[in-house]
Every structure is written in structure tokens, then in C-alpha cells.
Records
---
Amino acid sequence: MKVNAFIQARMSSSRLPGKVLTNIVDKPMLQHIVERLKNAKMINEVVVLTSNEHSDDAISTFCDSHHIACFRGSLNDVLNRFYMASQIYPADHIVRITADCPLVDSELVDDIVAKHLAAKADFTSNCHPAMYPDGLDVEVMKASALHSAQSQADTAHQREHVTPFLFTHQEQFLCVNYDAPTELPLLRLTVDHPEDLTLIKKIYSVLYPLDTNFNLQKTLNLLAENPTWLDDNKQFSRNEATQV
């Protein structure tokens, strides 16, 4: 049973261009995400999925120089990008992560993949509905479900966002939601604005030197000790961005 993690990444963010290669504690954000996912025991291979646009040459160059697997495909038809990548980097199941989530938790990824496999689900997530802070979203899908979506999804929204065809067709797919063990604050821990990056850099500056793979609970503990940090980006709503 092989499980690959696909990280959806692009440079042309409308609100914070180039954010995926912005340094956080002397490493590009994308590198942190790759390294954190490589700590997940359930993941066999981590692949960055970017577009074939010239603007994303920097991502491809970065991956090549750091020996990170990279696939390039359509900018807007991200579903097709995932499908084509699954042909080059085949697996039985695929974990979708977006490159604006530098706090992705390898322990949480493992738990969600384990639940997905135990349930023999087609699609499992912790974000439909949202159960975790924004930036901790994890989606897992069977390769066969991805292939079905590729052949059947016919709206721009379904093709841009990869997974809506799966979780909106539960008569066709077994969809499972991963519930948080306790009620968690639905904080904004993603990066879409400069203010988001300010918060993330504060978190990393404290926790990363102590533990390069610090988990969500350590982040929540730190924020409980420093509640005013959350003022940095509280004006923004969840899931503002249409793409990474």
C-alpha cells in the first residue's frame, strides 16, 4: 500500500506573490512543508506539484537543487495536474496539501491517513466541515477516486480545487470526516497575506529551534501564552484564497 503526498504550489498568488519560497527561519516555506511531511510515517513519497507557467520556473529550480520530486502541469486545471502527477508518481492513495500551510502536522497527517485506510474510504479530510485551524487542512483520496474525478468533473470550480467533486458526490464515494479529539480554536494559521506570514514567523522563531517538527499542540500552547500575536491576521476570513 503506497501513499504519496502531493503539495500544490505556485508563485503567482494574487495576495502574496512568491510566498511559497519566502524564507521562514532561513529556509523557504516550501522546504519546511516538504521536510515536515517527510516526518510522516504513513507517507512514502513527497512530490511538489506546480504549473508549467514560466512564473513557476523558480519552484522547479528550487526542487531540482534540493532533490525534491516535482511535477509540472496545468495552472488552472489543478485536478488534471494531480491526475497527471499520479501517473508519474503512482500510489494507491494521495494526500493533498497546499503550499501555504507551513504548520502542517506530520502526526495529524499520519492519523488521518490511518483512519482513511481503516475505513476503506475513497476520501477523508479534516476540513469538510472544518475541524482544525486553517492551515492544518489534510485531504486524502484513493487514486481510483482521483481518476474518477478527473474523468467526470466538468466545472471550473471542481477542476481548480481538485477535491470538490469527491465530497459533493457522496452517493458515489465513501467520504469520511476526521473529527478533532477535542474542540479546537479555528485559528488562521495559513499564509495568504503579509500579516499571516508575520504570525507564522513568530511561531517558528520560538518553536523551530527547539523542535524542527513541532506539532499543532505546541503551536496552540505558544499562542495561548501569546494571545496578542493573533491580532496580526484576525481581520481575514477562512479560505479566502482560491488557489495557493
Note: The chain is about 35% helix and 15% strand.
---
Amino acid sequence: MKDESSFYDIRSANFELWHPVCSPDDYGVLCSFDVTSPEFLGINEGTSELVRGFIASLDVCVGELEGWIVDRFVSPYFANDPEMNDWRSLFGLAWRFTVKVSGVRRYRPSGKVGPYPAAGLDATWRAGASSPTKNERERCVIIANEGPDRDFSDLAAYSVKEQLDIVTHHFPHGDVREARLDLGQVVLPDSVETIQYVLWKAKARFMTTNCWDASDRTAWQKASDWIEW
């Protein structure tokens, strides 16, 4: 976990936050969420000011920031226009945050799908380290919200070690599960055909595989009630 102090300028960059989920452990609460950058400015290691700003924008946990882990990946889930022919349109760049919060006074098990707007600056960000380019290796994660039959078995064979990370969102109208299928490091655009096939398997079971389709579902835009610690 990192916890570094850096200059925080709220005017510097705009981000969008997605899918906050919080769960208690022995020492506090772990909050996980995805971050995208419409302005193509990004995140490297993150700073304490930036992460505190994210937690405040999400409004899912009240406590003290203890530390965090951040992982960069690309995903069709965050593509702006996945129907375009250019392979770059199939992927959106994102960062997965897992944040440790101690001294928790209250938390929500799940926030709305998003996006939550947030502004900030990662002083550790390196200029030029933005979108994936040809012949580069990127970790690819396919995200799929469950369909009517709630069955993810078709996707398991394509994940690293044939394991799926299943995240449950406790929305007021009922639970919705989300599969996060880690394909590991892929070479772009060489792996596009395989990735498109996996997306087809998910869509055949009426799974939601793009964030903007999920954000259009009104029932998914209501956060869980607060749990007092």
C-alpha cells in the first residue's frame, strides 16, 4: 500500500469513477473502484490527496485513508464507441483502486454504477503514458454485468488460471453480480479477435459489457443505504 503526500490541484484533470464496492475486514473497510480519464490524463502510483478526493466524490465511506493499491488495465467496458472499426475504439484505459480506510464511522456496501465526476492531479503521472498503442502489451480485463440467467460459466475458460473475480453490487432493488475476466498481458491489436469472441460469448447471455449501457439502467444508479460502524 502507498501513502505519499503530493501537491493536489483540483483544476488539473477530470476523472470518472465507477463501481464502488466496500467491504469490512479486521482493521477497517476496503473500498474498490475503477477510474477512467476522459481527458486522457492518467494515473501512475497516485497520491494521498488524489485518493482522498476520489473517496469524497464517491461518498461511500467515512474514515481515515490508510493506503491504497492501483492497477492499470484496458477494457472494452470503458470504450467510448466499441462499434467503430478502429481497434483502438474497442478499449478504454482504466485504473483499479483498492483503498484501505481505517477509523470508519459508516460506509455503503455499494455505490451507484457511475460515473462519478472527480477532479484532481496525480503528481506521479508521466507525460506520454496514456492510451495503448500498436504492438504494446497491456493487461486486459473484460467486465460483464450478469444477464437474466446469472450464469458466468462460459467465460471462466478464458481467464487467467480459469478463475473469475465475481463482484456483487448490493443495490436497493436487488443484488447484481459483475464478472471481471482477467486475460493477463495481451499484445494489441493482435489479440483483438480473441477479445471480441469473448465479448460475443458474454453478449449471447445478455450480459452488459459496456459502462454506458450500465449507466443507462436507472435501478443501478441508486447507492446502498449507509451502514453505521
Note: The beta strands are 13-25, 28-36, 61-75, 92-107, 116-120, 136-145, 165-171, 174-188, 227-228.
---
Amino acid sequence: MPRMEANGTQLGPLELVGGHWAVGDAARPDAHWVEFRPDGLHQREPDSEGRSVPWSRIMSGIRLTWGKHSWNPDHRGMYTPTGMVAGRDGGWMHMTLRHPYEDHQLRFDQHARPYRAVDALRLESLLRQLSDEGKLHLLGDPEWVGRAVACLTGGTNSRLTQRALRRVATEAMATAGPGSL
């Protein structure tokens, strides 16, 4: 499997890598990460071709958890007093799939760099809102994601209410436009 090079654009665990957006450390050859592709999410794993989840199968909002195991609900949001994601054991993207209906998780390994809580929560809010509006396919458009990420990065680690997170995700989607897909 070829190693992908990062270009420095990021939002929490989301990073532009080799022309695709990926959640997790795609630069490490032994890592797990999730790519956003035009046809859906693609789980990349060491020594495997990975597995794909088409956008049309994802029926409910994607949420992120942190930790070594996907089933540990205590790691839903572990953050440090300085506003960073706590722990270095990786993370999980959780979603509900249709046809057949099932709960599904995709694993990703964290980067060496720390993630700001506000960035991780804004990413999760964007994923949830795109799902709610039936627009997850926009994640397969790297330029669209880049415009949305540009709107979501920066700012302070404050105003982390659900209402504020929804508002910033709505603004990022509006600024990013309709997308080319």
C-alpha cells in the first residue's frame, strides 16, 4: 500500500492527504484511517485492501469516540482541562447503516499531534449535519471539504454548546457551497 503524504490542512483528526481527506494518521504505514471518497467512506488498515461503506448506506449521524475499543462508552468525549482530546489510543467513527440495518464502526489511529477539542467537536457536528440533511456525499468532494474545513478551523476552545456547533456547521456548509458531486 503506498504511503500518502500530508499537506498540512487539518481539522482535529481530519487531514488532507494525497488529494483525499482522511480521518486518522494516514502517513504511518501501520495505521488505520478512514478516507472520504466520492463513493463513500473507505477504511484503510495495515496489510489489507480495506473496506468501503457507500454514502447511501449511512442512515444516521456519524459520531466520534476516543479509545482503544469501540464499545467503551466512557470515551465518548475525554478532554483535558486545556481543551485537548485526551488519550492517544486512537478513535472510532460510529454510524448506523441500512440494508441491512446495523451499527458500524470504522477505526482510526491518532496523529502524533494533539487535537483541539473544539476541532474534533466541529468535525463531528459537520458529519452529523451532513447526514441529517442527506448530503454526506459532499465529503467525497475534496475541494468542498477544504472550503468547509477552512470555515471550521481556528477560533477559541469556547462556545461548545450543541446550538453553537450546529450553527458553525451550518455556516461552513453554506460557505462551502453546493459542491461539484
Note: Residues 1-8 have pLDDT under 50 and may be disordered.
---
Amino acid sequence: MRDTYSVPFQQVLDRITPHLPPYLRKIEATAYGRVCFEFAPFTGCEKEPAKPQSYYDDARLTYVAESEDQAEHRIRTIARDVLDDLYRQANKRWQDAAYVAELRRVVRDAPDRWRAYEREAKALEAAYAYLRTAEAGREWLAAISRLVDAQDRTRAAAAAFDARAADIADAQYRHLYADLGHAQALAQAGYPEAKDWHVGDGWGGYFRDGLAAKVDHLIEEQERHLAKVRRLSGTT
């Protein structure tokens, strides 16, 4: 945006006042010739900020060549730049708020589902670790059976979390250009613990690399290890 040194700010303000939005709380020129804006907080549920039709219809803002009228060319150019910057900044604020608002809508019971997964994942870790103990050797088939049960429960809990994560990932994709990062947006939505969630990637209804896929990989590693143990030990 051009600075306002060459034109008194009040003249610029007079031109743009009819096109200022209701959510603008304050507008002022700084000592450095820039213009600062203060906005009311956005909820993200409002209509996306955009310049009103009156801006485009205002004859006092239409382009005038510098060769035709130097003073009018300067003030109109600066006035349009100020309005462009205002609505650009408002739109960025609104994008962040819309991102947070959508996350509040789609997260739902994801925290409970994540905690359920964590409980099952810890039980799986314990069941797998038990196989390395001497006690497991005395009840090997039973210990393996408990491991399989723990794998199944962990996989089911991961799939249940993915049902929520897919919507979260889709929201993250659709708000890709918001200034807020994923963890920041989730924290502002009321879920600071979400920084530890494995959400995966989603776009346009597609979802990949979710928690269930991570668990599948873990189970495959466990089963490859057990198969190697059987082979090297000569057990069936």
C-alpha cells in the first residue's frame, strides 16, 4: 500500500468512509505514513469480508490518469489502496476465525476417541513387551492370544479416531491458506492437547495416513518379529 504522506489522511478518510465495514473499530494513519486498522473479533460464521458494491460504483474512486488530474489521481489511488489493504487484512482475520469455527464443529468427541486409543495402545505395548519375559514362555499361546486381542482393540480404537480425524484433516486442507497453523487453530478451538493427535491427511473427501494405517504398520512389525522368533527358535 502506498503511504499517505502526499495526501492529508482526512481527505483519504472522507473518500473511503462510505465503504468502511461495520466490523472496523478503528482506523488511523501512523507517523510513518501507513494506515492501521482495528477490527471487532470475527466468529468465522459471518459472510466473508469483501469490498462492497458501493466501492466499485463510487465515481470519486474511479481511476483518473495522472496526466489528467494529478491531485485526483493521487488521492484516488491512495484511497483505493487503503480500502484494498483494509479488506485484505479483514479477510485474513476472518479466514483464521472460520478455520477455528469449523474445527469446533467437526472435532466433536475426538478427544475421547484419542484417549480411548491411547489406553488400548498402552495395553498393546504391554502385551508385546510381556512376550520378552520368561513368564511368557510358560504360557506362550495364551500370551500370543492376548497380544492379538490387544492388536484388534487398538486397531478398532484407531479406526474410531480416524472417523473424526478425516473431518479435521479435510478442514485443515480447506483452510490451508489461513495464517494459523494446524496446532494453533486446534488450540484456539479449545483443544490444545490436539498437538499430539495423529490426524493424517485429507482433501476433497479423500483421507490417508491416518491412525489406523499407523497401527497396521506397527502390527505388521510385531508379526514379522514373532515370525522371525518362531523361525530361529524352531517353534511352530
Note: The longest helix spans residues 70-107.
